[in-house]
Write a structure and sequence with these properties.
The complex is a heterodimer of chains A (279) and B (172). Chain A has 279 residues and is of the alpha+beta class. Chain A is 39% helix and 25% strand. Chain A has helices at residues 4-25, 32-111, 273-278, and strands at residues 117-125, 133-136, 149-152, 155-163, 168-172, 179-184, 190-195, 201-204, 217-220, 232-240, 249-254, 263-267. Chain A is rod-shaped, with a radius of gyration of 47 Å. Chain B contains 7 helices and no strands. Classes of the chains: A alpha+beta (279), B mainly alpha (172). The interface between A and B is medium-sized, with 21 and 26 residues.
């Protein structure tokens, strides 16, 4: 009845008219029916929208969180490595600082002494708990000789008893085979400091009549021909005067902490006994 | 040859541990001479020909490094090696248990050697209160660590056992 073109034109005109009607509603005050329809739509649709939006947000959050966690884990690993390196560095620097302090004391001690000395490092200790010797990393090649005294700023360490080209064995004054001719600094009472089993020394052959008190400093006398005169050995920690006998029993606590012995000085030219006697 | 090389490695390793690590540990960790346990192991599991030179090297090395009277370590290792290898013929208990008990006895014997040597030199009683504590600590640590040393020695010498095909108590 109508051609196809006529149908299309009519349809288009109807759509334009409908559009005009719909648009015209925007300018008309909202009716109560329309408000109820919107409210109903919102009541049913919005919760679903809210849930869906929430789910999308959550999914998006998890996705981002996952990547964040991966990044954080990587960063965490890197920071842990950095922290470990920093801690190691701090440890090295602390160790270096302590070594510097010890070496500075050794250098100061060496500079303040007229004796020729050779610094050495303790590389090993006696394998037996019954005997007290240490191995130092200086030997014949460095001018070290048998019976050279070994000291630290705190006092006497011992003497060289064996040596090779580059190493030497030092008998500590706390070894039971060690004996050092010594004096009480305050009263000049003479005796012999002998190593004892308890990491200390006994001060032997001191006459009962000699005035010795706990706390007195014991120094080397120089008369044994090995240790220079005036080096600190230790302090009197116990005095026993028995009713019988001509000697006192005296215990000495060494000035040197032998547990923490790391660097020492070997006296290369100890004064001869004649020089000591002349003094 | 392999046994000698392994023995030499064990000796050097134990000496380094005893001279450079153990002395710096707290006093409560007063370990004993691990080479005594090694001497016990050699006496139980290795032949006379293998053990003697190894014990002589170990003894001389320790004597040179220690301030102890010369020969005391050598004597104690040889004594342990030569005497303890006859013990399996006298008692009937398992190899591991025997090693464990003989190590404790060996440490005691070595301390006795030290005591006699110290007394003969200075005439001062060796086993006073302090030394008694040290000996007790050494025996305690032997009690604790001997099984681990057995495992270590057995692991190190396992190839030589297989190679020789002589089994565990090859030296007997």
């Amino acid at each position: 009845m109508f051609s196809k073109k006529t149908m299309v034109a009519a349809g288009a005109i109807i759509l334009i008219v409908l559009n005009g009607i719909v648009f015209s509603f925007n300018y008309i005050r909202k009716s109560s029916f329309q408000a109820a329809a919107v409210e109903t739509a919102l009541f049913f649709v919005s919760p679903v929208q809210e849930i869906v939006t929430g789910m999308i947000d959550t999914g998006e959050g998890i996705w981002h969180q996952y990547f964040y966690m991966v990044d954080a884990a990587r960063e965490n690993q890197k920071l842990r490595r950095d922290l470990a390196r920093a801690r190691q560095r701090i440890h090295e620097l602390t160790e270096m600082e302590k070594t510097n302090e010890r070496l500075k004391r050794l250098v100061d001690f060496n500079a303040g002494s007229a004796l020729e000395m050779q610094a050495a490092e303790v590389v090993a200790k006696d394998p037996s708990p019954w005997y007290h010797t240490v191995i130092i990393n200086k030997g014949r090649a460095h001018g070290v000789k048998r019976a050279n005294p070994v000291v630290v700023p705190d006092g006497v360490v011992g003497q060289v008893i064996d040596l090779s080209e580059r190493y030497a064995k030092v008998l500590l004054i706390i070894d039971r085979n060690s004996a050092v001719d010594a004096l009480v600094q305050r009263t000049r009472a003479r005796g012999v400091s002998i190593g004892s089993a308890d990491q200390g020394c006994r001060f032997e052959f001191v006459l009962r009549k000699q005035d010795i008190e706990v706390g007195d400093q014991i120094i080397t006398s120089g008369l044994d021909g090995i240790y220079p005169k005036g080096l600190r050995l230790g302090w009197v920690s116990k005095v026993i005067r028995r009713n019988s006998g001509i000697f006192q029993e005296i215990q000495i606590t060494p000035n040197v902490n032998f547990h923490k012995l790391e660097e020492v000085l070997v006296v290369l030219d100890p004064p001869e006994i004649d020089e000591v006697l002349d003094q | 040859m392999m046994r000698y090389l392994i023995s030499l490695m064990v000796i050097i390793g134990l000496i380094v541990v005893e001279t450079s690590i153990l002395p710096y540990l707290p006093e409560i960790l007063r370990f004993y001479d691990f080479l005594v346990a090694f001497a016990v192991y050699m006496s139980l599991y290795q032949s006379f020909a293998t053990g003697i030179p190894v014990m002589v090297i170990a003894g001389l090395a320790m004597d040179m490094l220690s301030g102890a009277p010369p020969g005391i370590y050598l004597a104690s290792y040889l004594w342990v090696f030569l005497v303890f290898r006859h013990v399996p013929g006298w008692v009937r208990i398992g190899d591991h248990t025997l090693f464990f008990f003989l190590s404790i006895i060996g440490v005691g014997v070595q301390n006795l050697f030290f005591g006699v040597a110290a007394w003969s030199v200075s005439r001062v009683p060796f086993f006073t209160g302090d030394t008694g504590v040290i000996v007790m600590l050494q025996l305690f640590w032997t009690l604790v660590t001997a099984p681990f040393l057995w495992l270590l020695f057995h692991f190190l010498f396992s190839d030589t056992h297989q190679a020789s095909g002589t089994g565990e108590a090859e030296g007997r």
